[in-house]
Amino acid sequence: MKSLFGKSWIWVAVLLIGLAGCAGTQTRDSTGEYIDDAAITTKVKSALIADKQVSAFPISVETVKGVVHLTGTADTRAEADKATTIARGVAGVKSVVNKIQVK
What we know:
Layout: H1 2-20, H2 31-50, E1 59-64, E2 67-74, H3 77-88, E3 95-102
Parallel strand pairs: 2-3
Antiparallel strand pairs: 1-2
């Protein structure tokens, strides 16, 4: 009987250790959020390319939780600001962080 009781505790310990490994960390809230961010990035890039004034500049776009980050260079502050205005006009954008450098 003691042998059976001892083996039961071993199995319980193994099970608990195994379940502890199942608790993962999430860097994103969900797969849906990741897809939404990718879609927003694509829409912002498309909108920037469609604008003749802004499309001439190398501007990178990254979206995290609906916040669009713009990086790159522009000739004037007005052109950099126009990129911000274009990005804000895209559906799903919560805010825009403009880190575009003026040459």
